[in-house]
Design a protein that fits this description.
The chain is mainly β. It is built from no helices and nine strands.
């Protein structure tokens, strides 16, 4: 007789999620990487995540395992999916395109209520 045995811990509590997107347009040459930064009240602007044209990613320790950065290289689109948001994620989020010159998005306020 076939038997299946499963194991696991209790389910995680519901947590809010949010996705951001950023589109770069114009004459863009030699893209090195795209990234998301954030700045919280009273804090310095910090790098959240980055992705190179080859798809290599890097994350801040504070968001590792919760956030996912992705891109569409052909259209210079970059996305940030934020799962399990916490109050400390509250900040203004900025996308950035790194070329010989760096370009910045206008900023998006993300507020996570307790």
């Amino acid at each position: 007789q076939v038997q299946l045995v499963e194991s696991g811990g209790p389910p995680a509590p519901p947590a809010p999620s949010l996705s951001l997107s950023c589109a770069a347009s114009g004459s863009i040459f030699r893209v090195y990487f795209m990234a998301w930064y954030r700045q919280a009240p009273g804090k310095q602007r910090e790098l959240v995540a980055s992705i190179t044209s080859g798809g290599n990613t890097n994350y801040a320790d504070s968001v590792k395992g919760r956030f996912t950065i992705s891109r569409d290289g052909a259209k210079n689109l970059v996305y940030l999916r934020m799962n399990s948001l916490r109050q400390e994620d509250t900040a203004v989020y900025y996308c950035m395109l790194a070329t010989p010159t760096n370009y910045w998005g206008q900023g998006t306020q993300v507020t996570v209520s307790s």
